[in-house]
Amino acid sequence: MMIKNAKIAWFFLLVLMIASSCNIQKRNYKAPIKEEGADYLLSQMKANQNHFETFSAKALASVTSNGKTNDIKLNIRIRKDSAIWVSISAGIGIEAARVLLTKDSVLFLNRLNKTFFVGNYHFINTMINAQVDFDIVQAILTGNDFTWYDYQELKATVVQDQYQLESAHRRKMKKYIRANDAVSQVIYQSLWLNPKSFKIEKLKIKEIKNDNKKIVAEYAHFKEIDSQVLPTQYKLSIFANEIIEIDATLIKVNLEKELSFPFNIPSKYTEIK
């Protein structure tokens, strides 16, 4: 009987030790926030972001929409703050579509039905029923924060084992607003940071006036690649009229590589108006 009671006592002691350890860890996490405020997290996040001029990756992905899941292959190329090029293949590797994004233009080629589109971000925003621009797309693909958006009303907290940084009224800075931008767009953004690396492990953006429209990106399996630490597993969820989920695993990533961004429209293709 004494042995059994001793085992129970040791068990509860172990539980108390684990709980105490977690509380100490949380207090340690909160210390810099209390001492230096939300600006501390912001500065650490910026200092630990990835810096490169070119980014390229190949990925295996599954896309779920309307209850259907399709497996695709992605070839992604980025020239920082300039161009994003994505080739989408399905089945045995035959290209199904190609996208080229610049700061103010969207080019889309659908090889399956031989159509193309040349225009602005209204095309993408209509497709996914959510507001995005070049900077948001670039940030989501690279696991970095938005570059051209300011911060308003920053709030920092500790959620489980992550730092959470929230900005209730984040908008594009005036000097970066272009003619076809949604000037009035204000987004609510939440970022979850790893407490050691300060890398973004999750981000959520939503429209201030519509809680049903939001984009959530989650990042995992961080690896050192060309002296940078990047996520190699992505989960992107778009909540609008319907839910679109994209799970992607990067199988090959290169930085600072000379890249081309080919985009030729065949003469027999029909333009999407």
Q: Count the beta strands.
A: 14
Number of helices: 4
| Relative helix content | 10-25%
- Strand % is over 45%
Distance between the termini: 82 Å
Radius of gyration: 22 Å
Structural class: alpha+beta
Shape by Cα distribution: globular
Largest sheet strand order? 7-8-9-10-11-12-13-1-2-3-4-5-6-14
Mean pLDDT: 83
Helix and strand string, N-terminal first? HHEEEEEEHHEEEEEEEE
Low-confidence stretches are: 14-26
Largest sheet: 14 strands, mixed
Please explain how this structure is put together:
The protein is an alpha+beta fold. It contains four helices and 14 strands. The chain has a 14-stranded mixed sheet with strand order 7-8-9-10-11-12-13-1-2-3-4-5-6-14. A hairpin with a 3-residue loop joins strand 3 and strand 4 (94-101). It is globular, with a radius of gyration of 22 Å. The protein starts with a helix and ends with a strand. Residues 14-26 have low confidence and may be disordered.
Quick summary:
By secondary structure, the protein is of the alpha+beta class. 22% of the residues lie in helices and 46% in strands.
Task: Describe the protein's topology.
Layout (H helix, E strand, L loop, with lengths): L1 H35 L1 H10 L6 E12 L2 E12 L3 E8 L3 E8 L4 E5 L4 E5 L2 H7 L5 H9 L11 E6 L2 E10 L14 E8 L6 E8 L2 E16 L2 E12 L3 E13 L14 E2 L2
Parallel strand pairs: 6-14
Antiparallel strand pairs: 1-2, 1-13, 2-3, 3-4, 4-5, 5-6, 7-8, 8-9, 9-10, 10-11, 11-12, 12-13
Keywords summarizing the entry:
273 residues; alpha+beta; single chain; 14-stranded mixed β-sheet; 4 helices
